[in-house]
Amino acid sequence: MTRGQGRRNAKLAALPLGMAGRAAAGFGKRLAGKSKDEVSAEVMAKTAEQLFAVLGELKGGAMKVGQALSIMEAAVPEEFGEPFREALTKLQAEAPPMPIATVHKVLDQQLGTRWRERFASFEETPAASASIGQVHKAVWADGRPVAVKVQYPGADHALKADLKTLSRMSGLIQKLSPGTDAKAMIDELIDRTEDELDYLAEADYQRAFARAFDGDPDFVIPKVVASAPKVIVSEWIEGTRLSKIITDGTRAQRNDAATKMTTFEFSSPSRVGLLHGDPHPGNFFVLDDGRFGVLDFGAIGQYPNGLPPETGPILALARDKRYDELRDMLVDHDFIRAAYAAKVSSQDLAKYLQPYVDPLYSDSFHFTRRWLQRAAGKATDMTGDVYKTSRHMNLPKEYVMVFRVLLGCVGIAAQLDAEAPYRAIMYRWVPGLEEELPAEA
């Protein structure tokens, strides 16, 4: 283990210890007369602040998990949400940059020592930095503005080590992210580690999306100009980050962004045979002409035949409140382990699936923080129905990304405080959802 990795592990390991210390201090405060709710809010606020501060300092898996959690920021209860909301926003697009000498070394290795001849200019200050790489703006030799995405040296070791460490903290992370199955999310990130690190594969995915959406009046996918195992050069797109639309956008801009984001995500399996699996605001732009720009194709689900066939029927049964049939279906397809079937009631499923089905009951749905906080359940309520049900659920691997993207779109729409024709979008692009299901024999 390197000295740097040792420091990383120490920071991550300090998180549960810090929470234990705060819990002990909280117990003392309760003895001194403070209410359980007051103490719980204090402990969770401080724990959340520490968690996201640590994740924000580190690259690799720590920041990757932080970005994945950030999509559900709107579900965090207001009484302790504000202290780390700003930290979550930073996790969507920022990380400490690597030295320019290191950037040059990577480019020498990946594009050849004469790589400068392929560019008319290259800006040495990074335009953006993320979990495993950073982006520099440049001009290609033919005059096109381009984005040069450079992977951090050692990102593979950092990503794998961080995810392994964080997998042991999924219980803590779950407490701070209501509505998110933290263990399933981290397990999926571990499974996709190699894909995330393979920029050649990412470039191929981006090319596939760019071809499928080429000329689309609503969407822009930057075309890939050149690629190597640790570098991607693609066309530069100029626009306003979705995180900026969330904070400063007009009502019309926020509504339009939510509509296009959801349409892009759920039309892609049909249009491309792929699902963009990293829906967080740092990956989305709104161009000046209103088109919706999409970046980062490292986390991609392969669905050559469209979304998995049970996706629509599961949502349809939940929408129609046919929970006994739904529970049987979820057991049959291993969403609920057979041993836990008796522990999951119709009422449990109704509460657990509320964020997915509420928007299906009207032509236009207004996504708000208050609604999502109610639907996802209080993060501090470890005895609540939503949390207990999540412990009995098991997302099969082919569905983890689908339901994470579903929840991600809902979470971001709530951050946008947007009103969108969610039902029409889902009926158009999720097979088996619009059709009325036959009654059980």
Description:
- It is built from 20 helices and 14 strands.
- Strands 1, 2, 3, 4, 6 and 7 form a six-stranded antiparallel β-sheet that branches. It has a four-stranded mixed β-sheet with strand order 5-11-10-8. A two-stranded antiparallel ribbon has the order 9-12.
- A hairpin with a 5-residue loop joins strand 10 (284-286) and strand 11 (292-294).
- The chain is of the alpha+beta class and 441 residues long.
- It has a domain at 311-429.
- Helices cover 54% and strands 12% of the residues.
- 45% of the residues are buried.
- It is globular.
- Helix 1 (3-31) runs antiparallel to helix 2 (36-57), helix 6 packs antiparallel against helix 8 (182-191) and helix 12 packs antiparallel against helix 19 (397-416).
- It has helices at 3-31, 36-57, 60-70, 78-91, 100-111, 155-167, 170-176, 182-191, 193-197, 199-212, 242-248, 251-271, 311-319, 323-332, 346-352, 354-357, 369-376, 385-392, 397-416, 422-429, and strands at residues 119-122, 128-129, 133-140, 145-151, 219-220, 224-228, 231-235, 240-241, 274-276, 284-286, 292-294, 300-302, 365-366, 419-420.
Feature tags:
alpha+beta, 20 helices, four-stranded mixed beta sheet, 441 residues, six-stranded antiparallel beta sheet, 14 strands, 54% helix, globular
**Shape verdict:** globular
**What proportion of the residues is helical, as a percent range?**
40-55%
Tell me the distance between the termini: 60 Å
| Share of β-strand residues | 5-15%
| Oligomer classification | single chain
How many H/I helices?
Answer: 20
Structural class: alpha+beta
What's the total number of strands? Answer: 14
- Unreliable stretches, pLDDT < 50, 5 or more residues? 11-36, 378-383
Q: Report the C-alpha radius of gyration, rounded.
A: 22 Å
- Largest sheet report: 6 strands, antiparallel
Overall pLDDT score? 79
